[in-house]
Protein backbone atom coordinates (compact mmCIF):
# COMPACT_ATOMS: atom_id res chain seq x y z
CA UNK A 1 0.00 0.00 0.00
CA UNK A 2 1.10 3.55 -0.57
CA UNK A 3 1.78 6.11 2.15
CA UNK A 4 -1.70 7.64 1.98
CA UNK A 5 -3.32 4.21 2.30
CA UNK A 6 -1.09 3.40 5.26
CA UNK A 7 -1.94 6.63 7.07
CA UNK A 8 -5.64 6.05 6.43
CA UNK A 9 -5.40 2.71 8.21
CA UNK A 10 -3.37 4.24 11.03
CA UNK A 11 -6.14 6.79 11.56
CA UNK A 12 -8.74 4.04 11.58
CA UNK A 13 -6.88 1.76 13.97
CA UNK A 14 -6.07 4.57 16.36
CA UNK A 15 -9.80 5.07 16.92
CA UNK A 16 -10.15 1.53 18.22
CA UNK A 17 -9.94 0.77 21.92
CA UNK A 18 -6.49 -0.84 21.73
CA UNK A 19 -3.87 -0.43 24.42
CA UNK A 20 -1.64 2.42 23.27
CA UNK A 21 1.65 0.67 23.81
CA UNK A 22 0.59 -2.40 21.84
CA UNK A 23 -0.61 -0.19 19.00
CA UNK A 24 2.78 1.55 18.81
CA UNK A 25 4.63 -1.77 18.92
CA UNK A 26 2.50 -3.13 16.11
CA UNK A 27 3.14 -0.08 13.93
CA UNK A 28 6.89 -0.29 14.62
CA UNK A 29 6.97 -4.00 13.79
CA UNK A 30 5.04 -3.46 10.57
CA UNK A 31 7.32 -0.60 9.56
CA UNK A 32 10.35 -2.85 10.12
CA UNK A 33 8.87 -5.56 7.92
CA UNK A 34 8.04 -3.02 5.21
CA UNK A 35 11.66 -1.86 5.14
CA UNK A 36 12.94 -5.42 4.94
CA UNK A 37 10.62 -6.22 2.03
CA UNK A 38 12.81 -4.07 -0.23
CA UNK A 39 15.48 -5.92 -2.21
CA UNK A 40 19.03 -4.59 -1.93
CA UNK A 41 22.50 -5.20 -3.31
CA UNK A 42 25.73 -4.42 -1.44
CA UNK A 43 28.79 -4.13 -3.69
CA UNK A 44 32.09 -4.53 -1.86
CA UNK A 45 34.53 -2.97 -4.33
CA UNK A 46 38.21 -3.90 -4.00
CA UNK A 47 39.94 -1.09 -5.87
CA UNK A 48 43.29 -2.00 -7.42
CA UNK A 49 42.69 -5.62 -8.36
CA UNK A 50 42.88 -8.14 -5.48
CA UNK A 51 45.11 -11.23 -5.67
CA UNK A 52 42.24 -13.71 -5.52
CA UNK A 53 44.71 -16.59 -5.88
CA UNK A 54 45.82 -15.73 -2.32
CA UNK A 55 42.29 -15.26 -0.95
CA UNK A 56 39.67 -17.55 -2.54
CA UNK A 57 41.58 -19.98 -4.80
CA UNK A 58 44.91 -20.87 -3.24
CA UNK A 59 47.43 -23.20 -4.91
CA UNK A 60 49.42 -24.65 -1.99
CA UNK A 61 52.60 -26.45 -2.91
CA UNK A 62 52.73 -25.01 -6.41
CA UNK A 63 55.36 -22.48 -7.59
CA UNK A 64 52.53 -19.97 -8.04
CA UNK A 65 51.02 -20.67 -4.64
CA UNK A 66 52.88 -18.32 -2.32
CA UNK A 67 53.30 -18.75 1.45
CA UNK A 68 49.64 -18.61 2.59
CA UNK A 69 47.94 -21.75 3.87
CA UNK A 70 44.37 -22.89 3.25
CA UNK A 71 41.86 -23.33 6.07
CA UNK A 72 38.58 -25.21 6.23
CA UNK A 73 35.37 -23.24 6.22
CA UNK A 74 31.78 -23.81 7.31
CA UNK A 75 31.09 -24.91 3.71
CA UNK A 76 32.12 -28.51 3.24
CA UNK A 77 34.97 -28.85 0.74
CA UNK A 78 35.52 -25.10 0.34
CA UNK A 79 38.89 -23.87 1.61
CA UNK A 80 40.11 -20.26 1.62
CA UNK A 81 43.05 -18.23 2.94
CA UNK A 82 44.20 -18.57 6.54
CA UNK A 83 43.94 -14.77 6.79
CA UNK A 84 40.14 -14.91 6.36
CA UNK A 85 39.03 -16.86 9.48
CA UNK A 86 35.88 -14.82 10.24
CA UNK A 87 34.72 -15.09 6.65
CA UNK A 88 35.46 -18.82 6.75
CA UNK A 89 32.92 -19.14 9.57
CA UNK A 90 30.24 -17.61 7.33
CA UNK A 91 31.21 -19.47 4.15
CA UNK A 92 28.07 -21.63 4.29
CA UNK A 93 26.20 -18.48 3.26
CA UNK A 94 28.59 -17.44 0.47
CA UNK A 95 29.56 -18.81 -2.93
CA UNK A 96 32.94 -18.30 -4.58
CA UNK A 97 33.05 -18.12 -8.36
CA UNK A 98 36.59 -19.27 -9.17
CA UNK A 99 36.34 -19.28 -12.95
CA UNK A 100 35.61 -15.67 -13.90
CA UNK A 101 37.41 -14.67 -17.09
CA UNK A 102 37.54 -11.10 -18.40
CA UNK A 103 39.50 -9.13 -20.98
CA UNK A 104 40.55 -5.85 -19.39
CA UNK A 105 43.88 -5.61 -17.57
CA UNK A 106 43.91 -1.82 -17.24
CA UNK A 107 42.62 -0.32 -13.98
CA UNK A 108 40.24 2.21 -15.52
CA UNK A 109 38.91 -0.10 -18.22
CA UNK A 110 38.60 -3.01 -15.81
CA UNK A 111 36.73 -0.83 -13.34
CA UNK A 112 34.24 0.23 -16.01
CA UNK A 113 33.78 -3.33 -17.22
CA UNK A 114 33.17 -4.73 -13.74
CA UNK A 115 30.71 -1.97 -12.88
CA UNK A 116 28.66 -2.08 -16.08
CA UNK A 117 29.24 -5.52 -17.71
CA UNK A 118 30.16 -3.64 -20.91
CA UNK A 119 33.56 -3.10 -22.51
CA UNK A 120 34.37 0.62 -22.17
CA UNK A 121 33.19 2.71 -25.10
CA UNK A 122 34.03 6.44 -25.28
CA UNK A 123 30.79 7.09 -27.16
CA UNK A 124 28.45 5.58 -24.53
CA UNK A 125 28.35 6.04 -20.76
CA UNK A 126 26.92 2.75 -19.50
CA UNK A 127 25.09 2.70 -16.14
CA UNK A 128 26.73 0.90 -13.23
CA UNK A 129 25.26 -2.08 -11.40
CA UNK A 130 24.18 0.18 -8.52
CA UNK A 131 22.37 2.55 -10.89
CA UNK A 132 20.61 -0.36 -12.61
CA UNK A 133 19.54 -1.78 -9.24
CA UNK A 134 18.14 1.58 -8.12
CA UNK A 135 16.32 1.83 -11.48
CA UNK A 136 14.82 -1.68 -11.48
CA UNK A 137 14.22 -2.65 -7.83
CA UNK A 138 11.49 -0.01 -7.29
CA UNK A 139 9.55 -1.81 -10.05
CA UNK A 140 9.44 -5.08 -8.10
CA UNK A 141 6.29 -6.16 -6.30
CA UNK A 142 6.21 -5.13 -2.66
CA UNK A 143 8.70 -2.28 -3.01
CA UNK A 144 8.30 0.40 -0.32
CA UNK A 145 9.18 3.99 -1.15
CA UNK A 146 11.68 5.63 1.22
CA UNK A 147 13.08 9.12 1.73
CA UNK A 148 16.68 7.99 1.41
CA UNK A 149 18.47 7.95 -1.95
CA UNK A 150 18.12 4.57 -3.65
CA UNK A 151 21.83 4.32 -4.49
CA UNK A 152 24.50 5.26 -1.96
CA UNK A 153 28.27 5.06 -2.44
CA UNK A 154 30.53 4.98 0.63
CA UNK A 155 34.10 6.16 0.20
CA UNK A 156 34.26 5.59 -3.56
CA UNK A 157 33.47 7.15 -6.90
CA UNK A 158 33.55 4.46 -9.59
CA UNK A 159 29.83 4.07 -10.09
CA UNK A 160 28.12 6.58 -12.34
CA UNK A 161 24.54 6.41 -13.59
CA UNK A 162 25.62 6.56 -17.24
CA UNK A 163 22.85 7.30 -19.69
CA UNK A 164 20.17 6.67 -17.03
CA UNK A 165 20.77 10.23 -15.82
CA UNK A 166 21.25 12.05 -12.55
CA UNK A 167 18.17 10.54 -10.90
CA UNK A 168 20.15 7.30 -10.55
CA UNK A 169 23.48 8.80 -9.60
CA UNK A 170 24.89 7.66 -6.25
CA UNK A 171 24.63 9.74 -3.11
CA UNK A 172 28.25 9.85 -1.95
CA UNK A 173 29.25 9.41 1.69
CA UNK A 174 32.93 10.12 2.22
CA UNK A 175 33.20 9.57 5.99
CA UNK A 176 31.08 6.62 7.17
CA UNK A 177 29.73 7.15 10.65
CA UNK A 178 29.61 10.92 10.24
CA UNK A 179 26.30 12.33 8.95
CA UNK A 180 26.74 13.85 5.48
CA UNK A 181 27.09 17.61 5.22
CA UNK A 182 23.95 19.74 4.97
CA UNK A 183 21.72 17.00 6.36
CA UNK A 184 20.10 19.49 8.68
CA UNK A 185 18.24 22.52 7.29
CA UNK A 186 20.13 25.80 7.44
CA UNK A 187 18.55 28.70 9.31
CA UNK A 188 15.63 26.66 10.70
CA UNK A 189 15.12 26.13 14.42
CA UNK A 190 12.30 24.97 16.66
CA UNK A 191 10.40 21.76 17.34
CA UNK A 192 10.82 18.87 14.92
CA UNK A 193 7.28 19.23 13.53
CA UNK A 194 7.83 22.95 12.97
CA UNK A 195 11.13 22.34 11.18
CA UNK A 196 9.51 19.76 8.91
CA UNK A 197 6.62 22.13 8.13
CA UNK A 198 9.03 24.91 7.13
CA UNK A 199 11.03 22.52 4.93
CA UNK A 200 7.85 21.47 3.16
CA UNK A 201 6.93 25.11 2.56
CA UNK A 202 10.36 25.67 1.03
CA UNK A 203 9.79 22.60 -1.12
CA UNK A 204 6.47 23.92 -2.40
CA UNK A 205 8.15 27.23 -3.25
CA UNK A 206 10.92 25.37 -5.08
CA UNK A 207 8.43 23.42 -7.20
CA UNK A 208 6.48 26.60 -7.98
CA UNK A 209 9.62 28.29 -9.28
CA UNK A 210 10.60 25.18 -11.25
CA UNK A 211 7.18 25.04 -12.88
CA UNK A 212 7.32 28.72 -13.82
CA UNK A 213 10.79 28.25 -15.28
CA UNK A 214 9.68 25.25 -17.37
CA UNK A 215 6.56 26.99 -18.62
CA UNK A 216 8.56 30.08 -19.51
CA UNK A 217 11.11 28.10 -21.54
CA UNK A 218 8.83 25.58 -23.25
CA UNK A 219 7.10 27.90 -25.78
CA UNK A 220 10.46 28.86 -27.27
CA UNK A 221 11.64 25.28 -27.85
CA UNK A 222 10.98 22.84 -30.66
CA UNK A 223 8.85 19.81 -29.84
CA UNK A 224 11.91 17.55 -29.72
CA UNK A 225 13.88 19.95 -27.51
CA UNK A 226 10.83 20.51 -25.31
CA UNK A 227 10.64 16.75 -24.61
CA UNK A 228 14.33 16.61 -23.70
CA UNK A 229 14.02 19.71 -21.55
CA UNK A 230 11.01 18.21 -19.76
CA UNK A 231 12.94 14.99 -19.04
CA UNK A 232 15.93 16.91 -17.68
CA UNK A 233 13.67 19.14 -15.58
CA UNK A 234 11.84 16.16 -14.14
CA UNK A 235 15.15 14.49 -13.21
CA UNK A 236 16.21 17.75 -11.55
CA UNK A 237 12.95 17.89 -9.57
CA UNK A 238 13.21 14.22 -8.59
CA UNK A 239 16.70 14.68 -7.18
CA UNK A 240 15.70 17.78 -5.21
CA UNK A 241 12.54 16.03 -4.07
CA UNK A 242 14.66 13.24 -2.58
CA UNK A 243 16.86 15.86 -0.93
CA UNK A 244 13.89 17.65 0.65
CA UNK A 245 12.43 14.35 1.87
CA UNK A 246 15.74 13.27 3.35
CA UNK A 247 16.29 16.53 5.25
CA UNK A 248 12.72 16.62 6.53
CA UNK A 249 12.49 12.94 7.55
CA UNK A 250 13.91 10.93 10.41
CA UNK A 251 15.43 8.42 7.99
CA UNK A 252 18.47 10.65 7.64
CA UNK A 253 19.53 9.47 11.10
CA UNK A 254 20.59 6.17 9.55
CA UNK A 255 24.00 7.71 8.78
CA UNK A 256 24.81 8.18 12.48
CA UNK A 257 26.38 5.08 14.07
CA UNK A 258 26.30 6.31 17.67
CA UNK A 259 23.39 4.04 18.62
CA UNK A 260 25.10 0.84 17.46
CA UNK A 261 26.32 -1.42 20.25
CA UNK A 262 30.07 -1.20 21.04
CA UNK A 263 30.48 -4.97 20.70
CA UNK A 264 28.92 -4.98 17.21
CA UNK A 265 31.01 -1.99 16.15
CA UNK A 266 34.14 -3.81 17.28
CA UNK A 267 33.09 -6.98 15.46
CA UNK A 268 32.87 -5.03 12.20
CA UNK A 269 36.18 -3.30 12.81
CA UNK A 270 34.35 -0.01 13.23
CA UNK A 271 35.54 0.62 16.80
CA UNK A 272 38.15 -0.57 19.29
CA UNK A 273 41.57 -1.91 18.33
CA UNK A 274 42.21 -1.75 14.62
CA UNK A 275 39.06 0.23 13.81
CA UNK A 276 38.98 1.48 10.24
CA UNK A 277 36.81 3.22 7.68
CA UNK A 278 35.93 0.02 5.86
CA UNK A 279 34.46 -1.47 9.02
CA UNK A 280 32.37 1.65 9.52
CA UNK A 281 31.33 1.53 5.87
CA UNK A 282 30.18 -2.08 6.25
CA UNK A 283 28.02 -1.43 9.31
CA UNK A 284 26.58 1.66 7.61
CA UNK A 285 25.78 -0.50 4.55
CA UNK A 286 23.78 -2.86 6.75
CA UNK A 287 21.89 0.07 8.27
CA UNK A 288 21.12 1.48 4.83
CA UNK A 289 19.71 -1.74 3.37
CA UNK A 290 17.72 -2.24 6.57
CA UNK A 291 16.19 1.18 5.87
CA UNK A 292 15.26 0.07 2.35
CA UNK A 293 18.09 1.46 0.17
CA UNK A 294 18.31 -0.50 -3.10
CA UNK A 295 22.07 -0.33 -3.78
CA UNK A 296 25.07 0.41 -1.56
CA UNK A 297 28.67 0.31 -2.73
CA UNK A 298 31.59 0.45 -0.30
CA UNK A 299 35.21 0.61 -1.35
CA UNK A 300 38.42 -0.84 0.06
CA UNK A 301 41.40 0.29 -2.01
CA UNK A 302 45.08 -0.65 -1.91
CA UNK A 303 44.99 -3.98 -3.80
CA UNK A 304 47.50 -3.03 -6.53
CA UNK A 305 50.20 -5.27 -5.03
CA UNK A 306 52.99 -5.30 -7.63
CA UNK A 307 55.43 -5.19 -4.69
CA UNK A 308 55.46 -7.24 -1.49
CA UNK A 309 52.07 -8.77 -2.21
CA UNK A 310 52.01 -11.15 0.73
CA UNK A 311 53.06 -8.62 3.36
CA UNK A 312 50.43 -6.18 2.07
CA UNK A 313 47.68 -8.77 2.16
CA UNK A 314 48.46 -10.26 5.56
CA UNK A 315 49.08 -7.01 7.42
CA UNK A 316 47.07 -4.32 5.64
CA UNK A 317 44.35 -5.63 3.33
CA UNK A 318 42.89 -8.89 4.60
CA UNK A 319 42.42 -8.12 8.34
CA UNK A 320 39.90 -5.27 7.83
CA UNK A 321 38.23 -7.10 4.94
CA UNK A 322 37.82 -10.30 6.94
CA UNK A 323 36.32 -8.55 9.96
CA UNK A 324 33.90 -6.46 7.91
CA UNK A 325 32.78 -9.19 5.51
CA UNK A 326 32.40 -11.84 8.20
CA UNK A 327 30.44 -9.49 10.47
CA UNK A 328 28.24 -8.19 7.65
CA UNK A 329 27.17 -11.66 6.52
CA UNK A 330 26.48 -12.84 10.08
CA UNK A 331 24.58 -9.64 10.91
CA UNK A 332 22.39 -9.80 7.80
CA UNK A 333 21.60 -13.47 8.41
CA UNK A 334 20.79 -12.97 12.11
CA UNK A 335 18.49 -10.04 11.35
CA UNK A 336 16.53 -12.00 8.74
CA UNK A 337 17.76 -9.74 5.93
CA UNK A 338 19.87 -12.22 3.99
CA UNK A 339 17.08 -13.43 1.71
CA UNK A 340 16.43 -9.85 0.52
CA UNK A 341 20.06 -8.71 0.28
CA UNK A 342 22.67 -9.77 -2.29
CA UNK A 343 26.35 -9.18 -1.45
CA UNK A 344 28.94 -9.02 -4.24
CA UNK A 345 32.70 -8.93 -3.53
CA UNK A 346 34.82 -8.02 -6.56
CA UNK A 347 37.56 -5.86 -8.04
CA UNK A 348 38.60 -4.93 -11.57
CA UNK A 349 40.70 -8.09 -12.24
CA UNK A 350 42.83 -10.69 -10.49
CA UNK A 351 46.59 -10.90 -10.25
CA UNK A 352 49.17 -13.09 -11.94
CA UNK A 353 49.81 -16.60 -10.69
CA UNK A 354 53.49 -15.93 -11.36
CA UNK A 355 55.20 -14.08 -8.51
CA UNK A 356 57.42 -11.30 -9.87
CA UNK A 357 60.92 -10.27 -8.82
CA UNK A 358 59.48 -7.80 -6.29
CA UNK A 359 57.55 -10.56 -4.50
CA UNK A 360 54.41 -9.11 -6.02
CA UNK A 361 51.76 -10.09 -8.51
CA UNK A 362 50.80 -8.17 -11.64
CA UNK A 363 47.48 -7.69 -13.48
CA UNK A 364 45.69 -10.86 -14.58
CA UNK A 365 42.15 -10.84 -16.02
CA UNK A 366 42.38 -14.30 -17.64
CA UNK A 367 41.03 -16.20 -14.62
CA UNK A 368 40.15 -14.99 -11.14
CA UNK A 369 37.52 -15.10 -8.41
CA UNK A 370 34.57 -13.14 -7.06
CA UNK A 371 32.34 -13.95 -4.08
CA UNK A 372 28.56 -13.62 -3.94
CA UNK A 373 25.77 -14.50 -1.54
CA UNK A 374 22.28 -13.70 -0.33
CA UNK A 375 18.96 -13.29 -2.10
CA UNK A 376 18.03 -16.39 -4.08
CA UNK A 377 21.64 -17.62 -4.20
CA UNK A 378 22.69 -20.94 -2.66
CA UNK A 379 25.75 -20.45 -0.50
CA UNK A 380 28.31 -22.93 0.77
CA UNK A 381 29.92 -23.75 -2.55
CA UNK A 382 32.71 -22.96 -4.99
CA UNK A 383 31.67 -22.71 -8.63
CA UNK A 384 34.13 -23.41 -11.44
CA UNK A 385 37.84 -23.96 -11.05
CA UNK A 386 41.24 -23.03 -12.40
CA UNK A 387 44.09 -25.39 -13.30
CA UNK A 388 46.67 -26.51 -10.76
CA UNK A 389 48.78 -23.37 -11.17
CA UNK A 390 45.89 -20.92 -11.54
CA UNK A 391 46.95 -19.99 -15.07
CA UNK A 392 43.66 -20.66 -16.85
CA UNK A 393 40.06 -21.71 -16.27
CA UNK A 394 39.74 -25.49 -15.96
CA UNK A 395 35.94 -25.78 -16.01
CA UNK A 396 32.73 -23.74 -16.01
CA UNK A 397 34.09 -20.43 -17.34
CA UNK A 398 32.05 -17.39 -16.25
CA UNK A 399 31.92 -14.11 -18.19
CA UNK A 400 31.17 -10.76 -16.63
CA UNK A 401 27.70 -10.73 -18.21
CA UNK A 402 26.98 -14.08 -16.55
CA UNK A 403 28.00 -12.64 -13.19
CA UNK A 404 25.70 -9.64 -13.63
CA UNK A 405 22.81 -11.85 -14.79
CA UNK A 406 23.32 -13.99 -11.69
CA UNK A 407 23.24 -10.99 -9.36
CA UNK A 408 20.14 -9.52 -11.00
CA UNK A 409 18.27 -12.82 -10.92
CA UNK A 410 19.20 -13.25 -7.25
CA UNK A 411 17.54 -9.87 -6.63
CA UNK A 412 14.39 -10.86 -8.50
CA UNK A 413 15.24 -8.73 -11.56
CA UNK A 414 14.88 -10.33 -15.00
CA UNK A 415 18.45 -10.46 -16.41
CA UNK A 416 17.11 -9.99 -19.95
CA UNK A 417 15.69 -6.56 -19.05
CA UNK A 418 16.78 -3.77 -21.35
CA UNK A 419 17.30 -0.07 -20.63
CA UNK A 420 17.43 2.62 -23.30
CA UNK A 421 19.89 5.44 -23.74
CA UNK A 422 18.98 9.05 -24.58
CA UNK A 423 18.33 8.28 -28.24
CA UNK A 424 16.33 5.11 -27.60
CA UNK A 425 18.91 2.39 -28.20
CA UNK A 426 18.26 -0.72 -26.04
CA UNK A 427 20.99 -2.28 -23.89
CA UNK A 428 20.67 -5.47 -21.86
CA UNK A 429 21.41 -4.88 -18.19
CA UNK A 430 23.59 -8.01 -18.04
CA UNK A 431 25.74 -7.32 -21.07
CA UNK A 432 25.11 -8.68 -24.54
CA UNK A 433 24.55 -12.38 -23.77
CA UNK A 434 24.85 -12.73 -20.01
CA UNK A 435 23.18 -15.82 -18.54
CA UNK A 436 22.61 -16.52 -14.87
CA UNK A 437 24.68 -19.36 -13.41
CA UNK A 438 22.07 -22.04 -12.71
CA UNK A 439 24.28 -23.93 -10.26
CA UNK A 440 24.25 -21.02 -7.83
CA UNK A 441 20.46 -21.02 -7.33
Q: Quote the beta fraction.
A: 5-15%
Quantity of strands, as a count: 16
Per CATH, which architecture of the largest domain?
3-Layer(aba) Sandwich
The largest beta-sheet arranges its strands as 6-5-7-1-8-11-4-12
Question: Which SSEs are present, and which pair or pack?
Answer:
Elements: H1 3-14, H2 20-36, E1 40-46, E2 70-72, E3 79-81, H3 85-89, E4 94-100, H4 107-116, H5 129-136, E5 151-154, E6 171-173, H6 192-217, H7 223-248, H8 262-268, H9 277-290, E7 295-300, H10 309-334, E8 341-347, E9 350-351, E10 363-364, E11 368-374, E12 381-383, E13 385-386, E14 393-395, H11 400-411, E15 418-420, E16 426-428
Parallel strand pairs: 1-7, 1-8, 4-12, 5-6, 5-7
Antiparallel strand pairs: 2-3, 4-11, 8-11, 9-10, 13-14, 15-16
Helix pairs in contact: 6-7, 9-10
Structural commentary:
The chain has eleven helices and 16 strands. It has an eight-stranded mixed beta sheet, with helices on both faces. Strand 13 (385-386) and strand 14 form a beta hairpin. The two termini are 30 Å apart. Helix 6 runs antiparallel to helix 7 and helix 9 packs parallel to helix 10 (309-334). It is 37% helix and 15% strand. The mean pLDDT is 87. It is of the alpha/beta class and 441 residues long. It has helices at residues 3-14, 20-36, 85-89, 107-116, 129-136, 192-217, 223-248, 262-268, 277-290, 309-334, 400-411, and strands at 40-46, 70-72, 79-81, 94-100, 151-154, 171-173, 295-300, 341-347, 350-351, 363-364, 368-374, 381-383, 385-386, 393-395, 418-420, 426-428. It has two domains: 39-178 and 260-440, 3-Layer(aba) Sandwich (Alkaline Phosphatase, subunit A); 179-255, no CATH class. It is globular.
Amino acid sequence: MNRRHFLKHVAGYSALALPGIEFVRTIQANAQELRRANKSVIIMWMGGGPATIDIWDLKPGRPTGGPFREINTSAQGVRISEHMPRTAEQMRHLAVIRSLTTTEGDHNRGTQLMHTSYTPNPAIAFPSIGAIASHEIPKLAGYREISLPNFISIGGGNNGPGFLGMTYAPFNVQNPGTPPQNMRPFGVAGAESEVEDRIRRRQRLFYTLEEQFMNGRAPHLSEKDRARFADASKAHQDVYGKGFSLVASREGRVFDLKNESPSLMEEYGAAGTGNNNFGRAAILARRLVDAGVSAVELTLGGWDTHNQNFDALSTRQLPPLDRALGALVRDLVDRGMWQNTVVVWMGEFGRTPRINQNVGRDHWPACWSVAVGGGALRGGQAYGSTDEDGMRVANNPVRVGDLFATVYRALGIDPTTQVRDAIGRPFAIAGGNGRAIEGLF
